[in-house]
Amino acid sequence: MRMFNRNRIVLGFVLIALAVVFAAEPGAQIFKPKDGYVPDSKTAIAIAVAVWSPIYGEVMVAGEAPYRARLANGIWIVEGSLPGGAPGGVALAEIAKDDGRVLRVIHGQ
């Protein structure tokens, strides 16, 4: 009989714990800005620079300023730039306007 009571007590605690966990979230709402998490080119550029820096190095990324961003089909395309006539490629990042996902990062040659 004691084992049966212990199991009931343990089950009771488990059920109470589950109730607390599930009850803690009912009013939580996910905030989604009407213009997406990346509403403008300034934000897209900031994200791209933050992603490029650990990959290519801060010095190289800073050397590709100024950066350009354009929106195409809900995707921000952010590119570095080179001084006129300079050989080489630039960093490019594609970032989803809606949720800020980094979709692609490449560097031209």
Topology overview:
Layout: H1 2-23, H2 41-56, H3 58-62, E1 68-72, E2 75-79, E3 91-96, E4 102-107
Antiparallel strand pairs: 1-2, 2-3, 3-4
Overview of this protein structure:
The radius of gyration is 25 Å and the shape is elongated. The protein has helices spanning 2-23, 41-56, 58-62; strands spanning 68-72, 75-79, 91-96, 102-107. The protein has a four-stranded antiparallel sheet, with helices on one face. The termini are far apart. It is of the alpha+beta class and 109 residues long. The chain has a domain at 41-107. The mean pLDDT is 85.
Throw out a few tags for this protein.
elongated, 109 residues, 39% helix, alpha+beta
Alpha carbon gyration radius: 25 Å
User: Helix-strand pattern, N to C?
Assistant: HHHEEEE
Low-confidence parts, pLDDT < 50 over ≥5 residues?
none
Can you give the helix content as a percent range? 25-40%
| Overall spatial form | elongated
Terminal residue distance? 77 Å
Quick take:
The protein is α+β, with helices and mostly antiparallel strands and 109 residues long. It is built from 3 helices and 4 strands; from the N terminus they run αααββββ. The longest helix is centred in the N-terminal third of the chain and has 22 residues, at 2-23.
